[in-house]
Amino acid sequence: MMILRLALAVAISAYATAQPASTSSLVTYIFGDSLTEVGNNNYLQYSLARADFPYYGVDFSGGKATGRFTNGRTIGDIISTKLGIPSPPPYLSLSQNDDAFLSGINYASGGAGILNETGIYFIQRLTFNDQINCFKKSKEVIRAKIGDGAANKHVNDAMYFIGLGSNDYVNNFLQPFMADGQQYTHDEFVELLTSTLNNQLTVLFQPTSHFHFLLFLYQKYQNRARDSSEQIGWSSALSFFFQHYYYYILSQYIYTFCLLSQ
C-alpha cells in the first residue's frame, strides 16, 4: 500500500508540476477494468460483472452501491480527489446532450482487458477497444458542442488514466478453458499483449500532439498454476516479461507514468 501511495504521489506531483497553477479546468479520461470502473456495467443488461449489490459502496459517499467494485473509492476517485476535481461519471450514464462530456468521462468496465477475448464469459463488458471507440464517439460529441479547434485543445490538454492488465491473466490466460492459454507460451502471450496495447495506444493518441497520462499495469496472478512445479516460474517469468516489454512501450508513449506491481 505504501508503494502504491508513493507511486500515486510521484505521478500526480509530476503532472501537477507541468500544469498551470489552477486545476479548475482539468479534464480526466479514465480507461480500465473493475479497479477503476464507476458504474458502466450497470448499464449493460446482460453483464455478469456488476457491482450493484448490497455492501458494495458501504464506505463510499451515500453508503450505497454505485457500480464500483469496492466498498469505497477507486484509484481514479483517489487521483481525482488529489487533483481537486470531481471523479468523472460513467460513459454509459450520459446522454448525447450532456455537458458532462466536457468535464471528463470514465470508460472503465469490470472484466475488461487488453485483448477482446478477455472476460468473454461475463457476456457483456467494454473491452479496451470498446472503450477507445466510446472515446472516439465522445470526441465527436465534444466537437459538435465547441468546434474542432477547441475540441482538439480540450482532448490534448486532458489527463488520461489507464489501468489494465490483470484480467488478461486472471480471466483469460490462466483459465484452463480459454484458448489463449493453450495456444501461446507465456512469452508469446506477453508479446501478444504488448503488441496489441501498442496498437491501441497508437489509435487512442495518434491525432494528439501532446498528452499526459498515467498508465497502471496491474501484474496480478492467480494463486495457482497448471501444476505446482510451475508456480514460481510463472510468476517470475510473467513479471520479467511484463516489465521488460511494457517499459519499451512506455518509453515511446508516456509523458508521466507509473508501473505498479501488486
UniProtKB/TrEMBL annotation:
InterPro entries the UniProt entry points to: GDSL (IPR001087), GDSL_esterase/lipase (IPR051238)
Source organism, top-level taxon: Eukaryota
One Pfam family from the record: Lipase_GDSL
Single Gene Ontology MF annotation: hydrolase activity, acting on ester bonds
Keyword Signal: yes
Keywords carried by this UniProt record: Signal
Signal sequence region: 1-18
Record bears the keyword Signal: yes
Similarity comment: Belongs to the 'GDSL' lipolytic enzyme family.
Name this protein carries in UniProt: GDSL lipase/esterase
Native species: Arabidopsis suecica
